[in-house]
Design brief:
Blueprint lengths: L8 H13 L22 E7 L28 E3 L6 E3 L12 E8 L6 H10 L12 H9 L9 E4 L18 E3 L17 H17 L6 H16 L2 H4 L9 H7 L2 H15 L3 E5 L20 H21 L6 E7 L20 E7 L6 E3 L1 E2 L6 E3 L2 E2 H11 L7 E4 L2 E4 L13
Parallel strand pairs: 1-7, 1-8, 4-10, 4-13, 5-6, 5-7
Antiparallel strand pairs: 2-3, 4-9, 8-9, 11-12, 14-15
Helix pairs in contact: 8-9
């Protein structure tokens, strides 16, 4: 007879929760899975966030031409052919069109949050509904938690944009949060020592901190330990070695020109951060001054929408070329996400409302077997007609590409939390 089976407290709680809900926990320590774990080889993720809601019908899933003046539903622009037969893009994505054999536009992402931008943004960063009992971690923090930084002396997660809780670590704790900056010409403000703080003064401050730590009582309080870790990381990152990564003037002038304006410079910086060993970078592209409304193209905001699309096209195409030239594209997954899509109908001002039933998110590079487009929507890009992809499925695809077990549980205290809310990757992208 075999010896007794030993199960720890977490496994017991997880199993109990599964039985109570009538569900199987997708954790290999608790249940045998008949599905082979899918794992890619990407070492880094650059996530481009289009705040406001990119209209799939006007970008990566074009349909027949509409006309707001005649109240005729359809695309705002003409479409063009790409390097993948049968896959067409908006005419303003002319640089990405010949690269679509290295890209997959996932056209059938869907969720049910369309009435509020903040809630939809949270859904597309955490993969879950907002909860009153637990704060879920963002995708960036999940990758940071599971993979850590790829080199010594760098953060695992950098946000190029404005910080908020949606992009944060949630129950994973502050050590898995982000370093952020909002202006590529300056770098992170918190890492630059003011002119009034000399090296000698900085040294005295660090000496005082060391004395305080020696005299403090030993603690197991996670928030205090996270705070200490954050201080240590800040001291490491404030040195000149890491801060050189933000000096974009070290790049050739013609390359900087190819990337374009501020958003392009953010994409260039993301490549430099990947080279330095940062695991996950989010690049925000919601620069309202280009069209007065960003990607939230209600009413007259749609009139200059093409400027946003063109800037996205130029910067992302250059990023793909740049990474490929440096032999980093297969190791770097590029992700383009937005909070929801846009309906084919026009509003009273000629713009578009919100749509969650079907919208497009994009994957490029990362060693995936790209196919130009995944899934199909109806004749007006309103509903998926084949291969629907839930938000957890999309998250699982990203995590799998980064070599992370998308079936595992994390723990909010003693509460088991499936890392992707039981999403399943798009397996054919790993063929």
């Amino acid at each position: 007879m075999n010896g007794p089976i030993v199960i720890n407290r977490r496994e017991c709680l997880a199993a109990g929760a599964a039985l109570a809900c009538g569900l199987a926990i997708p954790n290999s320590s608790l249940a045998e899975s008949h599905e082979t774990l899918i794992q890619g080889k990407a070492e880094h993720v650059i996530s481009i966030w289009l705040g406001g809601g990119m209209g799939q019908i006007d970008t990566f899933d074009p349909k027949g031409k509409g006309d707001p003046a005649k109240n005729l539903a359809g695309s705002y622009y003409e479409s063009i052919e790409t390097s993948v037969p049968g896959v067409r893009l908006c005419e303003h994505l002319k640089h990405l069109a010949p690269m679509m054999d290295q890209v997959t536009a996932v056209r059938t992402v869907h969720h049910d949050v369309i009435d509020e931008h903040a809630a939809a943004t949270n859904r597309m960063h955490t993969g879950r509904m907002i909860s009153g009992t637990v704060t879920y971690p963002s995708l960036g923090s999940l990758v940071a938690h599971e993979r850590g930084a790829a080199a010594e002396g760098v953060p695992s997660y950098v946000l190029i944009g404005y910080p908020n809780i949606t992009r944060g670590p949630g129950f994973l704790g502050a050590r898995h949060s982000y370093l952020y900056l909002t202006d590529t010409s300056r770098g992170p403000a918190g890492l630059s020592r003011p002119a009034s703080i000399t090296l000698a003064r900085q040294s005295r401050r660090e000496s005082f901190l060391a004395t305080l730590r020696r005299n403090a009582k030993v603690t197991s309080e996670s928030r205090l330990l996270d705070y200490d870790d954050t201080i240590d990381q800040s001291l490491k990152l404030s040195g000149p070695e890491f801060n050189q990564v933000f000096q974009l003037d070290q790049e050739p002038a013609d390359l900087r020109t190819r990337y374009g304006g501020e958003f392009g410079q953010r994409c260039l910086l993301s490549r430099r951060l990947v080279q330095r060993g940062v695991r996950f970078i989010e690049v925000s592209h919601n620069l309202n001054f280009l069209n007065g409304a960003g990607w939230d193209v209600h009413n007259e905001g749609i009139l200059q929408q093409h400027k946003l699309i063109q800037e996205l096209d130029t910067a992302v195409a250059t990023l793909i070329d740049d990474l490929k030239e440096k032999r980093m594209l297969d190791k770097t997954l590029i992700v383009i996400t937005t909070e929801f899509g846009r309906p084919p109908e026009f509003d009273s001002g000629g713009g578009r409302g919100h749509q969650g039933s079907a919208f497009t998110c994009v994957l490029a590079g990362g060693g995936l077997s790209h196919c130009g487009a995944w899934g199909e929507t109806d004749e007006l890009a309103k509903e998926a007609v084949s291969k629907p992809v839930s938000v957890p499925d999309f998250f699982a695809t990203i995590l799998a590409a980064a070599g992370i077990d998308y079936r595992k549980n994390l723990y909010a205290g003693d509460r088991p939390v499936p890392i992707t809310d039981r999403g399943q990757p798009i397996a054919k992208l790993f063929g």
